[in-house]
Amino acid sequence: MDIIEPGLAIDLVVNTHLIGEVNDIRTSTIYDIHGKKLIIAQTDPGLLISQLNQNIIISFLTYEKGNPVRYGFQAKIVNFIREYRVASSQTSPAVVVTQKTVPELYNLRMFYRIQPSNQYGLQISLFDQPVNIMDISLGGAIVNTTLSQPHEFNLETGKIIKVTLMIDDRNFNLEAQIKRKLFQEDKAWGRELECIALQFCNRTLELDRVLEGKLLDIQRKLRSKILES
After folding, report:
1. Predicted confidence (pLDDT) per residue in 30-72, tens digit
2. How many CB atoms lie within 10 A of CB 20?
3. DSSP secondary-structure letter at 228?
4. Class at the top of the CATH hierarchy for domain 9-105
5. How many Cβ atoms sit within 10 Å of the Cβ of residue 115?
6. Which residues are within 8 A (CB) of 34 and not within 5 positions of it... i.e. 6 or more apart?
7. Are 178 and 159 in contact (CB under 8 A)?
8. Pairing outcome for strands 67-87 and 104-105
9. Distances (CA, A) of 154 to 89, 128, 144, 151, 183
10. Residues 6+ apart with CB under 8 A from 79
11. Model-level pTM?
12. 9: left (phi over 0), alpha (psi -120 to 50) or beta
């Protein structure tokens, strides 16, 4: 896409915060392009060396038929430049990223959360065992950890585990980090359930698109039930 060129203003989706329900979005500008490598302005607050090799999403606005349209693509942070020459007498901190995917339509709006039941075609499995979803957003989910053999599994905070997210007839295998353990009230049984908050680590634009569509569909159905009651 020719619109990706030096001088283009971009937004970096650096991280998603499941507990805070917000995105970490930082603005930048493309300084230069060398094939799949993009040299971009350091953000404020700045990206850190500890984020080297981290995957991010870069999005930007363009205009089609006079209307603003946002595109996004996946990229990886590969290097930091302390003094990048942006003019004959001016240098500035810069970050080198590698473009991993082609630009696709992208939505930057904040994550919203829903509390679905199993009847809506949305399910998460840990260690090949289905678990109850207490709530879910694009960035992650809170699930009930009542597994048939829980003593076999390490569910410590900070651990990265493999999960399967089933959306209707599609399965997405991804990694998720356990952000914290918590308890939620089970109103039906009058007890507390042990749960974990999961943050999806390796989301793709395809997963975002499918999951966002599903969440919107569930949200519409939940609203209809409230209006009918």
Report:
1. 999 999 999 999 998 899 999 999 888 898 988 888 877 888 8
2. 10
3. H
4. mainly beta
5. 11
6. none
7. yes
8. antiparallel
9. 55, 14, 15, 8, 18
10. 52, 95, 96
11. 0.52
12. beta
What radius of gyration, in Å, describes the C-alpha atoms of the chain?
A: 20
**Token digits of residue 19:** 């507990």
Burial of 89 (0-12, 13-18, 19+ CB in 10 A): exposed
Q: What is the DSSP string of 32-72?
A: EEETTEEEEEPPSSPP-GGGTT-EEEEEEEEEETTEEEEEE
Degrees (nearest 5) of the Cα angle 161, 165, 170?
140
Separate counts of helices (H) and strands (E) for the chain: 1, 14
Average pLDDT of the chain is 81
pLDDT band at 18 (very low <50, low <70, confident <90, very high): very low
118-228 has which CATH code?
2.40.10.220
Instruction: Compute φ and ψ for 50, nearest 5 degrees.
Output: -65, -15
Domain boundaries, the chain: 9-105, 118-228
Give kind and range of the element (H or E) at residue 82: strand 67-87
Beta bridge partners of 70: 61
Distance of CA 107 to the CA centre of its chain: 11
**Model pLDDT, residue 63:** 85
Which residue matches tokens 């999403």?
57
| Cβ–Cβ < 8 Å for 142, 184 | yes
* Average pLDDT score over residue span 63-83: 88
Task: Give the tokens for residue 32.
Answer: 């230069």
